[in-house]
Amino acid sequence: MIRFLHTESSGSDIEPFRRLASAVYQSDPVWAPQSEEAIDECLARAAAGEIEIRATVAIEDDRPIARAMALLPRERDPGRGWIGLFECLPDSKESGAAVLEQCVAWLGSRGATEVLGPRSDEIRAGLLIDGFNRPHTVFTAHNPAFYPEVFEAAGFGVRHRMLSYEFSRDRVPTFRDLPMRSVAIRSADPARLEEDIARIETFQDSVFRSDVGRVRRSADRSRSLARRLLPILDLDLVVMAEDEAGQTVGVVICLPDAWQPPPVDRARLVSVGVTSGWRGRRVSMAMGSEVVRRLLAKGYRTLEGSWVMEDNTRPQVLARALGGTPGRVFALYGRRP
Fold first, then answer.
1. Which pTM was predicted?
2. What are the start and end residues of each CATH 3.40.630.30 domain in the chain?
3. 77 vs 61, 102, 106, 243, CA distance in Å?
């Protein structure tokens, strides 16, 4: 007999929800257990009033067999609900689809007109659909190969495919024709970190506002997200380009792979952007050259650049030209309630 438990609180009734992942990944050498920290982050955001949540878990013979969390942002993403933290045992696909459908129904009852998933916050999104044997890098997805089948059974279709590229110190790129000296390259400054966080957030919102999955954040939310990242952030790997007036015209953000067992020698390229008036003027090359120099000096061996939209061909051409090889592939699914 299968029963479904629902919770919208942070109490002990979330424990069956927590237990499932260890059963799903008990024989998976790639999965990073640190990814489960997203549960506590979602609960904390709900307690702070930033999102509404409803966690659903399917139970059979007192063991959890499928789960998902419905998330409804209270601002900045109108009409859109998310489903994240989905897990399912391989012999429980029907229950997995039922859990997803219950999340969709709840989000619809709260006014959502579109549901996207998997997604648990602004930096974690997508279902892994290729490259299952590659490392599970920080703030990215990893899941069994059958999960797309469960999403499709619940009425979801692929909205977007995202690619990753892998770079290695065995194939270090050569950067030529760097931009004029009117562009200054610097790291985020710990002495004025709050100011730089605000500058980067304003830049990101301006450059990526039309991107799929980009969620505009309040100033408080940006600071909260930055504080969460600070313990793993290496400010040397947050590189900013500025024009002669000191305006930010480009940003590159890399993260050490905090989910890798030490010693950490992997990094993840989270974001690369240049303002429209400076594109085609080698600004990204200048920032990339500086980031590569720093990664090599710090002993990193690999870098994964992820979340490149499949139809965005320019960064793919650039990645290949710089020695990158295709890596993992992710999909963001969607449906209407």
1. 0.91
2. 2-161, 169-329
3. 39, 21, 17, 32
